[in-house]
Fold:
Amino acid sequence: MALQIDVMDETGKLSEEELKLVESILTYASEQEKVENEAEVSVTFVSDKEIQEINKEYRGKDQPTDVISFALEEEGDGEIPVTGVGLPRVLGDIIISLDRAKEQAKDYGHSLQREIGFLTVHGFLHLLGYDHMNENDEKKMFSRQNDILAGYGLER
Structure:
């Protein structure tokens, strides 16, 4: 059994093909990252307004952003990871602003599909513990996401 993926389009603006792309690229990325079977992830597409509210509430930044990841396996102070025998590994949630994705695709001169793929893989790698807070980590994460996108066939 492969990665369990729940894709929700709260904007109602994505095509069936774009929704299938998200599932397909996440399946490919999970194989490349050797994520165990039966892990779960959700991807939700929202508007700039909605992601701005989420960004403000959870990150203290009152502005829209392109993607936010909520890793359910990260432990804060005093938290205990939610795991158990026989339970699937829940990686977390990826929230993508469709407004921002469209704007960035236009700015970078590539397709919306390429931008959706990029943001999905970027968010997924965050769920797996990758980050870009310093130069070394950034090189590692961006190299990995470029390898995954190129291997999948979604290059700029």
User: Anything to note?
Assistant: Residues 4-75+85-152 form a domain with the Collagenase (Catalytic Domain) fold (CATH 3.40.390.30).
